[in-house]
Amino acid sequence: MTDTARPATSIDYAAVVASPDLIELKHRQRRFAFPMAIAFLIWYFGFVLFAAFAPELMAIPVFGIINLGLLLGLGQFVTTFTITMVYVSYSNRVLDPLGAKLRAQLERQEAS
């Protein structure tokens, strides 16, 4: 049985994983994503728990036939789209420049 041929590369991937640039990129991504995910999950499960255990609260009329539960349910969609837009903006401003810097370094290493 033969080993699959791997292309020769001058990049030391173990060094890349330990590099300050990649560590910073991962740190900034996690610093944004984890708190946002936790906040959204609390909001989501709070809505589900209120719907299951406090239907009288969810049935409070807000205007006309629109009640609090309906508004909070629609708020789930609004929250999802808002989080997505905020993350894309953050990624464009903060993460993408760091990634581009790291890519340029790796491309220079590959070329040499």
What does it look like?
It is a single chain. With 112 residues, the chain is mostly helical. The chain has one domain. It is 78% helix and 4% strand. It contains four helices and two strands; from the N terminus they run αααββα. It has helices at 13-17, 20-53, 55-58, 68-111, and strands at 61-63, 66-67. Strands 1-2 form a two-stranded antiparallel sheet. Helix 2 (20-53) runs antiparallel to helix 4 (68-111). The longest helix is centred in the C-terminal third of the chain and has 44 residues, at 68-111. The protein is elongated, with a radius of gyration of 23 Å. The mean pLDDT is 92.
The total number of structural domains is: 1
> Strand order across the biggest sheet?
1-2
Would you tell me the overall average pLDDT? Answer: 92
In DSSP terms (H or I, runs of 4 or more residues), the helix count works out at 4
